[in-house]
């Protein structure tokens, strides 16, 4: 993907999801929770998952407050997670983490759909932790649900 295309996609998608966050509410039936905090920016995200008996994420929502990128990232992530198995959700975390933090990531971002927009945060190094916060929170919820995920 061209860098200009990525930048345009980034601005368009981040603005849209920041103005109109998807799945931004409490989830009473949630049975798995994650808490994330990015001390660098002050972003706080709580993730609420309802995982059914087949180990599939049936419902997902988030609450919290943060900058435009943290909120947009959480919003985009909840859209992507719905219907995924926990295993595939963890795989998606690994892909997003690699795409956002590794210089020569092997991840093909054209396969990521709208999520590719988040990878545009790479052009703004101070914002990368805002973009990865929701994903760290997901990873923690699936692996160490009692800990607070932090980007540090
Ligand atoms: Zn932030």
Identify the notable features of this structure and list them briefly:
single chain, 152 residues, four-stranded mixed beta sheet, 5 helices, 4 strands, 44% helix, binds zinc ion
Q: Please, how many helices?
A: 5
Distance between the termini: 30 Å
- Element-level helix/strand string: HEEEHHHHE
Strand order of the largest sheet: 3-2-1-4
Q: What class do helices, strands and sheet pairing give?
A: alpha+beta
What's the total count of β strands? 4
Q: Biggest sheet: strands, sense, closure? A: 4 strands, mixed
Describe the model.
- The chain is an alpha+beta fold and 152 residues long.
- Helix content is 44%, strand content 18%.
- The protein is built from five helices and four strands, in the order αβββααααβ.
- The chain has a four-stranded mixed β-sheet.
- A hairpin with a 5-residue loop joins strand 2 (43-51) and strand 3.
- The longest helix has 17 residues, at 3-19.
- It is globular, with a radius of gyration of 14 Å.
- The mean pLDDT is 92.
- Zinc ion is lined by residues 38, 41, 43, 66-67, 69-70, 130.
- Zinc ion (ZN) binds at residues 38, 41, 43, 66-67, 69-70, 130.
Give the secondary structure arrangement, pairings included.
Elements (H helix, E strand, L loop, with lengths): L2 H17 L12 E7 L4 E9 L5 E9 L2 H14 L4 H16 L14 H4 L8 H16 L4 E3 L2
Parallel strand pairs: 1-4
Antiparallel strand pairs: 1-2, 2-3
The site of zinc ion has 8 residues, from helix 2.
């Amino acid at each position: 993907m061209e860098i200009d295309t990525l930048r345009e996609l980034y601005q368009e998608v981040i603005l849209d999801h920041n103005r109109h966050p998807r799945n931004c509410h409490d989830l009473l039936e949630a049975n798995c929770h994650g808490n994330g905090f990015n001390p660098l920016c002050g972003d706080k995200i709580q993730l609420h998952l309802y995982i059914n008996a087949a180990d599939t994420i049936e419902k997902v929502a988030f609450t919290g407050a943060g900058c435009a990128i943290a909120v947009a990232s959480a919003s985009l992530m909840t859209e992507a997670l719905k219907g995924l198995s926990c295993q595939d959700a963890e795989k998606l975390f690994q892909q997003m983490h690699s795409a956002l933090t590794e210089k020569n990531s092997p991840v093909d971002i054209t396969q990521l759909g709208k999520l590719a927009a988040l990878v545009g945060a790479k052009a703004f190094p101070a914002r990368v932790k805002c973009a990865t916060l929701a994903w760290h929170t997901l990873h923690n919820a699936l692996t160490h649900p009692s800990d607070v995920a932090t980007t540090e």
